[in-house]
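Service request form, structural biology core

Requester: graduate student, group of Dr. S.
Request type: structure prediction, single chain
Budget code: on file
Notes: please return the result as structure tokens.

Sequence provided:
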Amino acid sequence: MLYFKFRFFLFYVLLFLLLNVNYVVTQLITASIISSVALGGWFSWDTIEDNTVCRFWECCNDKHVPYNLSRLKVSLSQKMFGQPLVNELVNILVAHKESIKDVNRQNKKALVISLHGWSGVGKNYAASMIADAIYAKGMQSSFVKMFMGKKDFDCNDMEKSKKNLMSTINQIVRRCPTSLIIFDEIHDMCPSILDTIKPMLDHHHAVDGIDYRNSVFIFISNIGGPQIATNLLELYDKGIKRNEVEFHHFEPIIRRTSYYTGGFEKSSTIAQHLIDHYIPFLPLEQHHVEMCALAEFRSLGVLQPTEDMMSDALSIITYGPSEDQPIFANNGCKRFVKHIPYVIQKYKPKDEL
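Core staff response, request fulfilled:
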């Protein structure tokens, strides 16, 4: 068996060399091959692979897939504001990770998380934090794939879209069973697309020889945003504070709204309860937006923005849901990404321009 694996390894390396890689890298690989041949009888295949192929390619091992959920906890606490339920992503992923590592409690299905809320409340930000925690290369990892609603799926040629989707995910998860698959802008996606991946999300040991149970699937959409806001106001009226809300306060209305909207429309992912966690992103209030603006200033090197700078940054924020209830920021923190760099430039001393 070791001989067969090593022949496969040599083929992989030769293929790499044929692709005209850098000369120095080629020499390093060659040296690694020689060392592996000499020591192959003393070390496991994983050890050989980690010290040869995985020094130059991204591999599905602890070095490239560290699954550092402590990092996720810190990122959420420092960069995500006003989202008490989003912090539960850490516990959700820790439970999934423990089942990956413990052979006695293997995952029975892929972990499926659906993120819902208004634009600008941090859904994509949270997804990128998850990728950064699990993979050394974060969103740039070859084990992370993001599909976009309209861009990646042609509603006029559904069969082709579905075939390409299956093929792409199969290739990624075959290479790394702990892959992360993200579907963004589901509100703009063709209905029935998600039904294509139902077998991957369900309780199956393997689908076409590929085991998806240790993978993570994340759905992102604006679906349910208005309903979440309305429900939150009703909870406030009942005396429930923002940091006291629970998943059960929002899941029924998110599921009900999603089932008749966009890519979720009559989807088996909802009907057959394949989504494990619906995460509501609450609309942001003024003090959350101020914290968000300050964090953006500091990320750009302005640790103490002046009062005028903060006022200018916050001037682009409008509040709703109506003029009579100016409680929630209509676009969250989304516009700060481009506006605050402009504000910093605007208030620079003229001699620094």
